[in-house]
Design goal:
This protein has a five-stranded mixed beta barrel. Strands 8-9 form a two-stranded antiparallel sheet. By secondary structure, the protein is an alpha+beta fold. The longest helix is centred in the last third of the chain and has 31 residues, at 339-369. It is built from 19 helices and nine strands. The chain has helices at 2-5, 13-30, 36-55, 64-86, 165-173, 196-209, 212-223, 231-240, 250-266, 271-288, 293-310, 317-331, 339-369, 374-400, 408-435, 443-448, 450-461, 474-486, 495-518, and strands at residues 96-102, 107-109, 112-122, 125-126, 130-135, 148-157, 175-188, 403-405, 466-468. Among the domains are: 1-86; 96-192, OB fold (Dihydrolipoamide Acetyltransferase, E2P) (Beta Barrel), CATH 2.40.50.140; 338-406; 473-519. It starts with a helix and ends with a helix. 35% of the residues are buried.
């Protein structure tokens, strides 16, 4: 029994399956563009490992590990090959004639007008991916969302590079082309299909009844879409450390589910019926948010927890998080290289691994200073959540952004609860504006968001708020995560063994990363 308790993660099959899937995807991407002989090596090793585990009775229960690793390797290899085969214009094209359907509202920038299009045809050939349009001259659009437009300009495709977030985001959004347009005109009128039509109605209602800054914040808060934000507001949100609040995630899905359960309980709806209704509505909401990685993760985890509670099962946070990762990565393995996916999952993993230990230490300190200080206890709890999330998401913030906001802790303590209150108010106001013609009620959001807007503007104006972080490689990220998991509370080892193992692992990681850098 003592040995069993010392196993890392205490043998959670779902966690091991998720790790195996991730390893398979990483190996496949590392070998992208290499010769077939080199690519076949991990396949042969995986098959051999699978056979060996099945041969021996004691190891037979672990056969799924190499099997899922092979699934991840195959899924990523196929995804890359399919993407390359569908990309008709991988480099900057010559001047071409195009037609497309406008997907939504247009954003005016200093450089011109930007908007999304779908059903793109280039020189009469249907493209498999949608596009972002950049119009670099002054013009007054005579078309709306859903209309078909004729364009002339240049096409630039998103190239597939190893461990590239741009390529992964292109697959996730379905928009892999950038159109640099010199001529544009309306061909015919049309209508958007679901969910684009509902997304457009929501955005239109926001922009008609609020200033552009408040409307773009509400769009990001409700739909997770920051496309309409100007550069100053976007950078202010980043500088304040509140970007995660404007990406639909666990906070939003949990808030929505809680509100729905509260209403259904007041209506005296049976628990199992409430479960079905809440899961169905949160799934539709996730679809409205275009199935972003953070929204999908939150939906799957909330659904797993809801089913576990309804049937009297003990829920396991790590298994639920792993299950969400497996569902997303099997169908979209490139999600592993999206900034949103990595930040969302690593933050949640950090909270599960470290929050309890950090919170216990923090609460002891609060009790020592002031035993009856409940406010201090709450502050420590929120601070530990932020710190736990930062511990695991740190390498990805370094890799994608190269900087860390100093105000992140203060922002989470003060403005996360406030912004979620705004979200709770925004939900019914949006429903009222869509169901009735009383759209001016949305003006309430402009008033509520006044403190938030001024805070991010203040954060943007601070010259030394963002800490520059050193560049980090993929090998260094993997080494860092392995070490952090090793020292977490789920590695049930004595502290001395953890310290020795951590020091040895850190020294080995530095040597390996240095070797990779030299290669």
């Amino acid at each position: 029994m003592a040995k069993a308790k010392r196993r890392i993660f205490n043998y959670r099959p779902m966690v091991l399956a998720a790790l195996a899937l991730i390893v398979g995807i990483i190996v496949a991407e590392a070998l992208y563009g290499e010769k077939l002989a080199l690519i076949s090596i991990p396949l042969c090793v995986g098959v051999a490992a699978l056979v060996l585990l099945l041969v021996f009775k004691k190891t037979r229960r672990f056969f799924y590990i190499p099997l899922i690793m092979l699934v991840g390797f195959s899924a990523m290899s196929i995804s890359g090959a399919v993407y390359d085969s569908k990309m008709s214009y991988k480099e900057y094209s010559p001047m071409l004639d195009m037609t497309a359907t406008v997907s939504g509202m247009m954003t005016v920038t200093d450089e011109g007008v930007e908007f999304y299009v779908h059903d793109l045809y280039v020189d009469g050939e249907k493209m498999d991916y949608d596009a972002t349009v950049h119009v670099y001259f002054d013009f007054t659009p005579d078309f709306n969302a859903g209309d078909v437009v004729s364009m002339r300009g240049y096409v630039q495709g998103t190239e597939h590079k190893k461990f590239d977030g741009y390529f992964a985001n292109a697959i996730a959004s379905g928009r892999a082309y950038y159109l640099h347009i010199s001529e544009i005109s309306k061909l015919s009128e049309g209508e958007l299909d679901f969910p684009r039509n509902l997304q457009h109605k929501i955005r239109s209602a926001f922009y008609k009844n609020m200033d552009s800054g408040s409307a773009s914040i509400c769009t990001a808060l409700l739909l997770g879409d920051k496309f309409g934000m100007d550069d100053e507001l976007r950078q202010g949100v980043t500088a304040s450390g509140l970007s995660h609040v404007l990406a639909v995630s666990g906070l939003h899905i949990t808030t929505l589910s809680t509100a729905l359960y509260f209403i259904l309980r007041k209506l005296k709806v049976k628990p199992w019926v409430s479960l079905i209704i809440v899961v169905a509505l949160t799934f539709l909401y996730t679809a409205l948010c275009s199935f972003t990685a953070s929204a999908l993760r939150a939906f799957v985890m909330s659904a797993v927890f809801a089913f576990a509670s309804s049937f009297g099962k003990k829920r396991d946070n790590l298994s639920a998080l792993s299950f969400a990762a497996i569902l997303i990565l099997i169908f979209r393995p490139t999600a592993l290289f999206e900034a949103g996916f990595l930040l969302s999952f690593s933050s949640m993993l950090g909270i599960f691994l470290f929050h309890r230990s950090l919170n216990e230490a923090g609460q002891k300190a609060v009790c020592t200073i002031s035993p009856k200080h409940k406010f201090g206890s709450r502050i420590v709890k929120l601070a530990c959540v932020t710190l736990s999330a930062t511990i695991m998401s740190y390498p990805f913030q370094t890799y994608f952004f190269g900087q860390l906001p100093l105000l992140q802790l203060l922002s989470n303590l003060i403005f996360v609860p406030y912004v979620m209150l705004c979200y709770v108010v925004l939900l019914p106001l949006t429903l009222i504006s869509l169901a009735t013609s009383v759209t001016p009620v949305l003006y309430v959001m402009q008033i509520l968001l006044f403190p938030f807007k001024h805070y991010v503007e203040w954060a943007y104006g601070l010259t030394r708020n963002l800490i520059g972080l050193p560049a980090i490689s993929v090998a260094a990220i993997v080494a860092y995560l392995m070490l952090v998991i090793f020292i977490s509370r789920f590695a049930l080892l004595p502290r001395k063994d953890k310290l020795k193992g951590g020091l040895i692992g850190a020294a080995s990681a530095v040597a390996i990363c240095a070797a990779f850098a030299l290669i």
